[in-house]
Structures
1.
Amino acid sequence: MRRGKRGLIATAVTVVCAITVLAAPGAAFASPSPTPTPSANPPLAPSKDLEAVRQKLDTLYRAAARATDEYNAAEEKADKQSAEVVELAKKIVKGQERLDELKERAGAAAASQYRGGGLPPEAHLMLSDDPQEFLEGVGRVRQGQHATKGLLGELARTQEDLEQYAKDASAQWKKLESGRKAKAAAQKKIEKQIAQAEKLESALQKEEQQRLVELEKEAADKAQTAWLGSGILKDISGKASEQGKKAVAYATAQIGKPYQWGAEGPRTYDCSGLTSQAWISAGRGIPRTSQEQWKQLRHIDVRDMRPGDLIIYFDDASHVAMYVGDGAIVHAPRPGRTVTIAGAGSMPILGVVRPDTGADAGADAD
C-alpha cells in the first residue's frame, strides 16, 4: 500500500457523507507530519466505516441499475423503431414500383389514343355507320371508361400512400434519433455511477474488500432471516410449470457468469437480461427490462409464487430475480459480482410476476 494509506478510509467516509467522488490516492492524503515508518499490516478501517462504504456502494449500484433499465428500454425501443423504418422503406420501394407500372399503363393508353388520330373512343363510335359496330362499341367504351377511371384512381391512391409512407418514415427516424440520444444519456449515467463505485472499492485494502463482501452477505442474510421469520415459506408450495422448469434450468446454468450491464448472454448478463433470456429459452418472450416485466406481466401474490416466477425488487422495480424454490432466487446482482443463488427475501420485495400464459398454466405439474 502507498504511504498515507491508513487514513484513506476515514477520508473516504467523509467524502461519502459529502456525496462527492473520491479523489485518487496521492499527496492529498499525505500526513503533514514526518513520514511514518511503513507498517507491514496497516490498520483496517473500523466496521462502522466499512458499513458506510457498503451503503454508499449500494446507493451507487442501485442508481446504475436504474440507468441500466433506462438503457435497455431505449435499446429495445430503438430496435423496434429501426424495424419499422425498414418496413416503411420496403413499402416505399414496392409503392414506387407500382406507381411506375401504373404510369406506364397510363402512358400506353395515351399513346393508343394518339394513334387513333387524337379522337376519344366516343368520337370514333359516333362516326361509325354500322349499327352492330355501334352497339358493340358502346359496351367497349363503357369498359374503357371504367378501366381508365380505375387506373387514374389507383394512381392517385398509390401516390398518396407513398407520400404517407415517406411522412411515417421521417417521423420514425426522428423517434429513432431521439431514442439513440436517450440510450447514450443512460449509458453515461451507468458509467458514471459504476466508475464512482469502483473508485471507492479500489481505495480499500484487500482485507477491507473481503470484509466488505462479508458485510454485504451479512446484510442479505439478516434480511432473509427476517423474511423467513414471518413464516412466509410455509405458505409457498406452488410447483413449477413445464415452461417454468425450463426457465429455471437455463437461469441456474448461468451461475458463475459475470454481471455486465446491458448484457443478455451468453457470457455475461444483467438482471433482466438473465430473466428474459431464461424465459425465451422456455419458449416465452417477455419484456426486456425489470420495470416493463413488472408493468406487463401478470402479478401474483408472494404466497402463490412458484419456481420460474420473477420477483421484482425495490420501489422503482430496478432489480429482478427468478424464484427457484425453497425461499431462494437466482439472479445477476451487480457489477463486480456473478450470477448466483441468494435468499428471496434478501432485498426489499416489490412484488411477483408470472410469465406463463394462462391463469393456472402448469400449476399442478410435478
Note: Residues 131-202 form the longest helix (72 residues).
2.
Amino acid sequence: MNVRRRHISAVALTAVAALGFGTLTACSSDAAAGDTGKFDVVASFYPMAFLAERIGGEHVHVTSLTQPGQEPHDLEISARQTAQLEESDAALYLKGLQPSVDEAIGQSPIATKIDAAELTALEEHGTEAGHGEEHGDEHAHEDEHGHDHDHEGGDPHIWLDPVKYAEVAEGVGKAFQKADPDHAADYRKNTASLVKDLKALDGKFRTGLANRDTDVFVTTHAAFGYLAERYGLTEEAISGLDPDTEPSGARVKELQQIAEEDGVTTVFYETLVSDKTAKTLAGDTGLRTDVLDPVEGITDHSRGEDYFQVMEANLTALRTALGAR
C-alpha cells in the first residue's frame, strides 16, 4: 500500500475524470500513482526516473512527467500530471531544468520533494566553456518563452558527470530511506550498487580519454560542461544551455576558427534535437557529425537501452572525435 494516503483535490478529481489517469512513460507499469501498493515516485525526466528505479527496485512505482522522445526543456505540465503529483508519495526532480515542473512540485502538497540540484554542487558552464572571456557571453540561457534553464546561475546537467550523478544517487537513497523506512535496508543496498557502477563508469572515461590528440569538442547544446570539466576537456557549444537557442553568426564563425586551431574533427548533435545546425556547421568546415547524447530520454534512436549503455556509446564517440588511443 501507499506509504502515505491523501485526498485528491476537487480540481485534481476533475482532471482525472476528464483526461484519464494512466502512467506517462514506458519506465512505469500500468497502475496509476496512488493505488499501486508501492512507494509511488513521480520523476521529472529520464535521469531522475532512472535513479528512482535503480534505488527503489521492487519497492517503488516510478512514473516520469517527460515522455520518451520529448525534449525535457519544452515540457509543460498537464492537469492530469498535476493530479498525479497529488497522489504520489515522492517527487524527484532537478530544479532549474524544467520551469513548469518546478512550479507544479512547488505548489503540490506532496510531503517528500527531492531536488537533485541540492544533492551536489552546481557550477556555471557557459556556451564557450574553456576559452575564457575572449569569446564573450552574448548567449542568453532563456528560450522564446522567457524560461531560464539555469539553477540560480548553475548548469543543471549534473547527470552527465558520473561522479556528480553518484553524489545525487546517494542523496536520493537517503531520502527514500527516510520516507519509506520499512524498506530502508534495500534502498541502502541498491544505492551502494548504483554508486559502484557509476564509479566504474567514471574509471572507463578516465582511462578511455587519457591519451588523446585534442581536448576540444563541439556540440549543438551546452550540456556537457560537467563531463568536460571532469575529464579535462573543453566543450565549445553552438548554442547555450537551452538547446533551442539559435547561435549568432559571429559564434558560428568563431567555432570555425576554433575547429581549425584545435584540431576538431567532429560536430556533435543529439537525438532529441534537430541536427540541422550541426550539419550546417560541419559542412562549412569540412568536419563530420556524430551523436553525443545528453541522456535526457531513451528512445528507439538512442545508442543503448539505459543510462549506462548510452554513456558508454558517448565515450566511444568522444574517443573517436578526440583521437584517443
Note: Confidence is low (pLDDT under 50) at residues 1-31, 127-151.
3.
Amino acid sequence: MSHHTQREIRYNFEYERRIKACFIGAGGHAYRNVYPALRYAPVELLGVCDLDIGRAAKFAKLFGAERAYSDHREMFEKEKPDLVFLVTAYHPDGRVQATDLALEALAAGAHVWMEKPTAASLVEIEQLHAASAAAGRMVMTGLKKTFFPTIEKLKDLMGSPQFGPLTSINVRYPQSLPAFSDRADLVKMQSFLDHIYHPGAILHYLGGSIERVSYEREETTGATVTNMRFRSGAIGTLHFTAGQSGASIFERVEIIGQGANAIVENGTSLTYFRKADLPAYGRAASFLQPDENAALLFEPEHSLGQLYNNNLFYLGYVPEILHLTDAILEEKAITKGTLETAGEIMKLFEFYRRTDAGVTITL
C-alpha cells in the first residue's frame, strides 16, 4: 500500500455530489488554514457559527455559507448537516471546547472534523468513541503532520527492500514542558496539550504504538529528551527543543532502517540516504559515492503557481479534509486522524502530566 500518491485536485464547484456541512468557529487559524481548504473539497457550507454573530456573518459572506448563527444548537436543528467542522478554543478550566461540541454534533447525526487537540483526557476520548459508535458517524482529528507529503514518503520508505524496517526514529519539535508543580493545572498545560499532537501524531504514524517511555527535563527552558521503545521493537527519541532560536529550523524527523536513513526538515525538505558503504577508511581520495548510492533530495519549487507549493497542501490541510470527505462519500472508514490515534497521543500527554520524575513508564 502506497501512503503517498499523486492526486489531481478538483475544485469545490466541480463536484456533482457535495456534503452538507456547518462550521463552528470564526478565529484566525480557521480563517487562514481551514475555511480556504474547503475550496478544494466536496462541501456545501450551509452555516457558520460563532459566539460573535458579527464575525460569523462576515465569515459566512466571505466563504460562501448561506447563514450565520451564534447558537450551534439552532444551527444543527435548522441546517441538519451531515458534517460539522470544529475549530474552537478552550473552556476556562483548560478543557477542550470541541470535545463537547463534537458530542453534540454526533447526537445531531453529523460526522465531525475537529482541529486538534481532540480532548484533554483519555476518558474524554473514550466518551467520543462510544458516542461515535452509537451514532454511526466518524470523528476525525486534523492531524496534519501525517498528511505532509514528506512524512507520507517516509512511511513508504519504511519496510521497502532498499530501506528495511524501522529500527529507530528521532523527532525534534520546539516545545516547553511545564514544571512539575504546574502539571495538574490544565490551563498551565494548555500550550503543551495543543502541541503534543504534532510530534505525537508523527511518532504514532511512523512508529506505531509506544510501549515504554522515560525522559529528562532541563529546568531553565523546559526542554526535554524522551527515550521510547515501540511495540514493534524500534526505539526512538522525542526532543522538545525549548530554547532554540526563532530563526532556527523549526522541526526535524529522522528515520533509520537497515543501512539507510531519511531526514525531513521543516516539513518540506526530504533527504533520503540510500544504502551505501563508507569509502575505504584512510585510503579513499573522494567523498563522492556512485550515482546509484547517492542521496536523493526532494523539495518543492516555488516558481509556479502550483497547488503543491501552497501551504494548504504541503502542510496537509486540504489532504486531511479530503480524507474524511472521500470516506463519507464512499461510505468507508477513515484510516488517519482516528480516535484510536488520538487516544495514543493522549496516553503520551498523560504520561508527561505525571509528577514522578526519572521513572520508566509502560504505556
Note: The longest strand covers residues 210-217.
